[in-house]
Amino acid sequence: MKKGTVQDAVIVRTRKEVRRKDGTYIRFDQNAAVLIKEDGTPIGTRVFGPVARELRDKNFMKIVSLAPEVI
């Protein structure tokens, strides 16, 4: 990406806890995002670290398949 360009992204990890439907909370050690194209596919070819399983519900299956672990 060139400096100064605006790009869409999907948040895959947050330090702020997120409540799941079953009542549990999930929290990560750091924040992370994946840059995406207009059609929702990721720009990069690798995703480092775990991602939340809520991405599967939001139909970001390509990001889920690239991630080493889904929590």
Descriptive tags:
single chain, 71 residues, alpha+beta, two-stranded antiparallel sheet, two-stranded antiparallel ribbon, 4 strands
Biggest sheet: strand arrangement: 1-4
Q: How large a portion of the residues is in β-strands, by DSSP E?
A: 15-25%
**SSE pattern:** EEEEHH
Q: For the residues shown, what is the average pLDDT?
A: 95
Report the radius of gyration as a whole number of Å: 13 Å
Spatial shape: globular
Distance between the termini: 29 Å
Number of helices: 2
Unreliable runs: none
Number of strands: 4
Helicity, as a percent range: 10-25%
Main pleated-sheet profile: 2 strands, antiparallel
Question: Would you tell me the structural class of the helices and strands?
Answer: alpha+beta
Account of the 3D structure:
It is a single chain. The N and C termini lie far apart (29 Å). The strands form 2 sheets. The chain has a two-stranded antiparallel sheet. The chain has a two-stranded antiparallel sheet with strand order 2-3. The mean pLDDT is 95. The protein is built from 2 helices and 4 strands. β2 (18-19) and β3 (25-26) form a beta hairpin. With 71 residues, it is α+β, with helices and mostly antiparallel strands.
Summary of the model, kept short:
By secondary structure, the chain is α+β, with helices and mostly antiparallel strands.
How is this fold's topology laid out?
Layout: E1 9-13, E2 18-19, E3 25-26, E4 32-35, H1 54-57, H2 61-66
Antiparallel strand pairs: 1-4, 2-3
